[in-house]
Amino acid sequence: MFFQIRSSLVLIILFSLIGSSILIPNSFAQEETKIPNWIKNIAGWWAANEVSEKEFLTAIEYLINNNIIYLSFVPCGGAAAIAASDPTLEAKLIPNWVKNNAGWWATDQIEDTDFFNGIQYLIEKTIIGLDNEKIKGKVSIEDVKFSPAWTVDKDKQVFVSSSFFEVYGLNGDCVIFEDDRVSKWKTNLLGLNPNMMDVYNKVALWNDPQNVVVVYPYFTYAAYQSGGFYDYFRGDCNDCTTTKLVSPTSQYTSSGLGHQALTLLGYPSINDIEIDKNPRILEQYDKVVMLHNEYVTRTMFDAITSHPNVIYLYPNALYAEIEVNYTDGTITLIRGHNYPEKEIINGFDWPFDNTHPYEYDNTCLDMEFYKVGNGWMTTCYPETIFLTNDLLIGNILNTIKGL
Q1: d(C-alpha 254, C-alpha 15), whole Å
Q2: How far apart are CA 163 and CA 348, in angstroms?
Q3: Is residue 317 exposed (0-12), middle (13-18) or buried (19+ Cβ within 10 Å)?
């Protein structure tokens, strides 16, 4: 009982504090969107144990889908997805102590703004869980165009966000990190909003074709997988300096979002294997865009660094040398990343290595492109920018197109 009372009091204080700092949509502030009476009734009935948690969640979903509760980025609801997949399971998605606050709101002891902002905060911190399949974007997924370079099963995707791109996630594909215990998406997919084609046309290559190619870092993707180089670096596996090549998914460490964004906008793409097997392939292009191509062969390194116009969009490119065994389908770490001796940093002793200090800046608040020997480099790791920041995405894409 003490914990329940204390939690409720803390939440009231929280509502009051965040009510002054987190803005709800202008539509609600201007009273253009009316809150149906049944929403408040459901809250009161749930507080009195007269309706189920599921019915209260239905009311919250209504508020979200009608932009009364605004979520800029819908969190991953893993518990709800698991429960939905098995009718015998019942997920607990809302802590019991939230009932008191729902009851106080239903009896006008808490202002609408404070209550909705409080619910928004609890959802964003995944203290309240959502059934992602019930949250809808403003554009039907059937009208959203995804990258032709990636296989997408639209039936399994759920809406996450709408910014420069439409953002989707695989339902239930969540991971919880120890630092904040918030459920996050393992991967995200980017799509084009059909109502924003005028914006896309300014940065895309459809109407302004260029002789350019983007290089997907397939070897780097493999290096980061389970049983790969990072298991060796952590001391979990002594022989993981050799690892298997596996089918890629879009991941942060292999710049999957950057690759999706560019291929969505008309940039052709090749991968590491194509350059390793035919290094002269780059001679066909006037401009080469590298992503997080951290692990490359000597053949690749020579081909890339001898090209006259390369954009190294992500720091930490060309960091370590590997060899590929195409018969076994494996890559092996040869030199770099403090291997085989700790004092070896860049495996090619490349003077333009910009891993430090730029690789770990993923906010990109002061992102710049700067000139190096055979092209351009950036001062941050822009992967998550493709999910949210309209202005910065536009600037990045304009710069890539213009260089």
Answers
A1: 39
A2: 39
A3: buried
Model's pTM, two decimal places?
0.88
Amino acid identity of residue 377, one-letter, is M
CA distances to 218, 246, 381 from 225, rounded to whole Å, are 11, 9, 20
Residue type, 137: G
Cα–Cα distance measured from residue 166 to residue 175, given in angstroms and rounded to the nearest whole number: 21
Structure tokens at 277: 């097997």
Where are the chain's structural domains?
2-134, 199-402
**How far is residue 147's CA from residue 163's CA, in Å, rounded to a whole number?**
17
CA distance 186 to 246: 17
From first to last of its 403 residues, what are the pLDDT tens digits of the chain? 322 333 443 444 344 434 333 333 433 443 456 789 999 999 999 999 999 998 999 999 999 999 999 999 999 986 665 555 555 545 668 888 899 999 999 999 999 999 999 999 999 988 898 899 999 999 999 999 999 999 999 999 999 999 999 999 999 899 887 777 788 899 999 999 999 999 999 999 998 889 999 999 999 999 999 999 999 999 999 999 999 999 999 999 999 999 999 999 999 999 999 999 999 999 999 999 999 999 999 999 999 999 999 999 999 999 999 999 999 999 999 999 999 999 999 999 999 999 999 999 999 999 999 999 999 999 999 999 999 878 899 999 999 999 9
397-to-43, 145, 209, 273, 385 alpha-carbon distances in Å: 46, 18, 14, 26, 12
Q: Which one, of 187, 81, 60, 66, lies nearest residue 124 by Cα?
A: 60
